[in-house]
Automatic annotation (TrEMBL):
Natural source organism: Paenibacillus agilis
One Gene Ontology term of the molecular function aspect: sequence-specific DNA binding
Broadest EC class assigned to this enzyme: transferase
GO biological processes: DNA restriction-modification system; methylation; mismatch repair
Catalytic reactions of this protein: a 2'-deoxyadenosine in DNA + S-adenosyl-L-methionine = an N(6)-methyl-2'-deoxyadenosine in DNA + S-adenosyl-L-homocysteine + H(+)
E.C. no: 2.1.1.72
Xref: Gene3D superfamilies: Adenine-specific Methyltransferase, Domain 2 (1.10.1020.10), Vaccinia Virus protein VP39 (3.40.50.150)
UniProt name for this protein: Site-specific DNA-methyltransferase (adenine-specific)
Keywords tagged on the record: Methyltransferase, S-adenosyl-L-methionine, Transferase
InterPro entries: Ade_MeTrfase_dom_2 (IPR023095), DNA_methylase_N6_adenine_CS (IPR002052), M_m6A_EcoRV (IPR012263), MeTrfase_D12 (IPR012327), SAM-dependent_MTases_sf (IPR029063)
Keyword S-adenosyl-L-methionine: yes
UniProt: S-adenosyl-L-methionine binding residues: W8, K12, D56, D187
Length: 286
């Protein structure tokens, strides 16, 4: 099984089995898979569709995937030059403080920086400040698997041996070509559990409730086109009301990445689908 390169807030590795039981019966060699908020790509890598469109608004994240696809060996070499030390960590983290300096880095150097920071920062958290600068402190791990050459090469082979389009932009544009019979999985930044529990800084600008409403409208448009749609989110009253006309399945998930240790642990989520999963038997396993 292919495994994600990055740890990512909201990653789906802990609930993949549940998500698979809610999938429609599709021939992944025929239909196209769409994931507009690809994040750590756990769902994509578990399904391994032959045709897919993946997207994220986070430029650094998408740059990682593009470099893995087109220049994996250069990425492995660049990663091997990084060391797990506090001094080196803060030096590398500071690279984006000067726009001219950061702009002068190659795509490979930026991708290696993103992976290095992800593997050595506190709790694998990706967070940026109001100016879009990465601001997570050093994780102080005794050991960190920075290079991950086997994962990089396996991911690269998958991306190159299949029809995988990698996009960086708005989630609605990413699914604009989805047609009847295709499958879309939405895993957006989640609705907040309380007014003080906001963590939407995966990219500068966040994802407020106005965006949650726009996403729900897009979900309805895709449903009307005959596209199979699945969505994950927090089980808040706001979200369950937005998707009240669809099939809502509840799941208890583990939250492993958060800026506060007290906020990590069990959380109630929903998986919303626009098709009936009770009339089919699961054909998916690990």
């Amino acid at each position: 099984m292919l495994k994600p390169i990055l740890k990512w807030a909201g990653g789906k590795r802990q609930i993949l089995h549940h998500l698979h039981t809610q999938l429609p019966q599709l021939d992944w060699s025929i239909c196209t898979y769409y994931e507009p908020f690809v994040g750590g790509a756990a769902m994509l890598l578990s399904l391994k569709p032959q045709a897919a469109v993946i997207n994220d608004i986070n430029e650094d994240l998408i740059n990682v995937y593009r470099v893995i696809q087109y220049d994996p060996e250069a990425l492995i070499t660049a990663l091997s030059e990084h060391v797990n030390s506090e001094t080196h960590y803060y030096e590398v983290r500071s690279w984006d403080r000067e726009e001219d300096t950061y702009a002068s880095l190659s795509s490979v150097e930026r991708a290696a920086r993103t992976i290095y920071l992800n593997r050595t920062c506190f709790n694998g958290l990706y967070r940026v400040n109001s100016r879009g600068k990465f601001n997570v402190p050093y994780g102080k791990y005794k050991q960190a698997n920075i290079v991950q050459e086997h994962k990089v090469r396996a991911f690269s082979r998958y991306l190159n041996h299949n029809m995988i389009q990698i996009r960086n932009g708005d989630y609605a544009a990413a699914v604009s070509q989805a047609k009847a019979g295709d499958f879309v999985y939405f895993d957006p930044p989640y609705d907040t559990l309380s007014p003080t529990a906001s963590f939407t800084s995966y990219a500068k600008g966040g994802f407020a409730r106005e965006e949650q409403r726009r996403l729900a409208e897009l979900y309805q448009e895709l449903d009307q086109k005959g596209v199979y749609v699945m969505l994950s989110n927090h089980a808040t009253e706001f979200i369950t009301d937005l998707y009240r006309n669809y099939h809502i399945h509840h799941v208890h998930a583990k939250r492993l990445i958060n800026s506060k240790g007290t906020a990590r642990g069990g959380v109630n989520e929903v998986v919303v689908v626009n098709y009936d999963t009770n009339s089919r038997s699961s054909a998916y396993s690990f």
